[in-house]
Amino acid sequence: MDKLNPEILKSKPHFEILDGLRGIAALAVVIFHFMEMAYSDYSQNFIGHGFLAVDFFFCLSGFVIGYAYNDRIKKMGVWEFFKSRLIRLHPLVIIGSVLGLLTFLFDPFGGHPELYGVGKLILIFISSILLIPFPVMPERAFNLFSFNAPAWSLFWEYVANIFYAVALYKISRRWLLLLTALSAAVLCFVSYSAGNLMGGWGGENFWHGCARISYSFLAGLLIYRSSLIIKSKLGFLSLSLLLALAFLIPFTKWNWLIEPLVVLFYFPLLIALGAGAKLTQGLRKICVFSGKISYPLYMTHYAVIWMFANYYTSNKPGTPQLFYIIVVGFVLLVGIAYLTMVLYDTPVRRYLNNKRKQA
Fold first, then answer.
1. What is the domain partition of the chain in residue ranges?
2. Which residues have a Cβ under 8 Å from the Cβ of 14 and sit 6 or more positions away?
């Protein structure tokens, strides 16, 4: 059958600068989470808007999904599309949950696993690997996924993928534009009512995640469907700096206004520019590596962040010591992500894809 033709299932060439920018966003998330644990007052956090990297991920995802599947999803079928996405995304969902469970049980700096029975821990773990929201741990701020907090965005990514496969890929561009405009209005309402766009990760702000993925994914898809690719002389370094500036915006009382402007206009502009920019040969390897490491880093780093939070609470290190801890921790997390990618994610995905082709 056509849907099992290896040529139909084959990945398309990547936009390498966009891959590189995904890596920059992932690095920003890690630094933001370190700083978040040390400075609960976000106005004191030099990267206080690092959480907006998730909105950049969502927008980039919409663009990439449209580019990768719009012209072949009918041939491959909805089920093959779902299998492609599960093979790409879910191995790291599982390993992130495993690492989160292990660090919860054996954190040398604190935590109270003895407060939870075996049955409840198993239930929390199963909900984590199956991406079933289960916000029941108060000491972890009632995250949707207690053992791997960043998985909340993967939950919404899966929801967006389902809607794409069922309806979005075949609706007209006019309807896509209308849906994007409506979701923009909802996003602005959420930002105004909550004071910022930080929600989506916990039980109390669950539906904020729906607003964030709805606009950004649709906007990315609209960029692709409308061929809004801007040719320019901007390269990877210039675009990386422009992206980083969004995360370095000071956290103020004007967040309700500034954050929607960044998400509604600035991130789509950067993606349109990144898709049309030229990559110099010397930076190609950096972009490729940055893109490959981004998802493993995003899905494995938070287990260490919880350990860092317990260490910081117990020891209250001074600023110089804190600086070195974060730098060393950051480097170690990149190393862990690389090992996870090489020893686990890549082999598992290769095995699953081979079994799929043999089927």
1. 2-358
2. 288, 291
**Region at 165 (left for phi over 0; alpha for psi -120 to 50; beta for the rest):** alpha
Can you tell me whether residue 24 is helix, strand or coil? helix
Q: Which residues contact 134 (CB under 8 A, 6 or more apart)?
A: 123, 124, 127, 128, 144, 145, 146
Q: For residue 3, what pLDDT is reported? A: 44
Specify whether the CB–CB gap between 194 and 222 falls below 8 A: no
In whole angstroms, give the CA distance from residue 258 to residue 48. Answer: 13
Query: Which residues make beta-bridge pairs with 202?
Result: 143
State the amino acid at position 81 in one-letter form: F
Give pLDDT tens digits for 233-268: 899 999 999 999 999 999 999 999 999 999 999 999
Region 98-121 average pLDDT: 92
Residue with tokens 């954190």: 107
Largest Cα separation within the chain, whole Å, is 63
Helix (H, G, I), strand (E, B) or coil at 200: coil
pLDDT tens digit string along 115-172?
899 999 999 999 999 999 999 999 999 999 999 999 999 999 999 999 999 999 999 9
